[in-house]
Amino acid sequence: MKSKGFHCPKHTPIMAALLIPGSGYLFLARPMRGLIMVFWMCIFAYITFQLTTPEISVIGRYSGGIAVWIISVLEVDHMVRKRNQR
């Protein structure tokens, strides 16, 4: 049984996930998962922005969203490795 989506080089989804949050999932034919991750990035970025003071750096203020972004890149990498093992 063939999987959905198109075949692309193994580094393409990872690079896309690094450049645009959630886009790596599109290359892996999981667009809903990408949308969910972007939603949670926005939620956690908003929460950490509201809980921090203006003296904290921009990266610190949006650290919740950045953390979810990093987790999504690692998950895309894991999915690519798993797909290439088959």
UniProtKB/TrEMBL annotation:
It comes from the Bacteria. Keywords: Membrane, Transmembrane, Transmembrane helix. The chain crosses the membrane at residues 12-28, 35-53, 59-76. The keyword Transmembrane applies. This is Uncharacterized protein. It comes from Desulfosporosinus orientis (strain ATCC 19365 / DSM 765 / NCIMB 8382 / VKM B-1628 / Singapore I) (Desulfotomaculum orientis).
